[in-house]
Amino acid sequence: MDLSKVGNLIYNLRKEKGMTQKQMANIMNISDKTISKWERGLGCPDVSLLPELSSLLGVNIEKILLGELNPNEQFGGNMKNLKFYVCPECINIITSTGTASISCCGRKLEELEPVKVDENHALSVENSEYEWFITTNHPMTKDHYISFVAYVTGDKLLMAKQYPEWPVQLYFQKFGHGILYIYCTKHGLSYQLI
Known about the structure:
Order of helices and strands: HHHHHEEEEEEEEEEEE
Organism: Acetivibrio clariflavus (strain DSM 19732 / NBRC 101661 / EBR45)
Number of domains: 2
CATH class of the largest domain: Mainly Beta
Largest sheet: 5 strands, mixed
Keywords: DNA-binding
Helix content: 10-25%
CATH architecture of the largest domain: Sandwich
CATH topology of the largest domain: Immunoglobulin-like
Strand content: 25-35%
Distance between the termini: 50 Å
Domain HTH cro/C1-type: 10-64
Pfam family, one: HTH_3
Protein name: Putative transcriptional regulator
Number of helices: 5
Number of strands: 12
């Protein structure tokens, strides 16, 4: 661990938050000399202080210990880079349009890899003038159901959360051709072109 990098990061993040060393120390119930010591690279926060420091600075503990944030390269608003994450504990759905470090319920989440839809998960898509009407015969039991359906075009994402024991009957405003992403709680993420 590079203490000078850790200290420099703490200093910059504290400044971003508009706090003095004294204010930060008061919030954390430690001395401002301790903060000064960290920022000069002469020491590292105690493990017991890392969760509070992480919350206060709005940065993951891992990033504090690495001493760098490593921002993503900026890509345009293209939804072709869309990534889906689903928490296995609470079924929370998270998306990103670039590289991200995502966690939920205390677990780091991995990006879902979509596979081409099979016959059992293919959605029926009816084309009307302004909307897509989407249905399926997929089981919607408590243990096996479609959790969400997302319609993605080059610049838009429309998502509908689904629930067990409810039939899938969706309307998405039509924005031209795109991709439907379907997340089944047993079989994962699949896609079909529309």
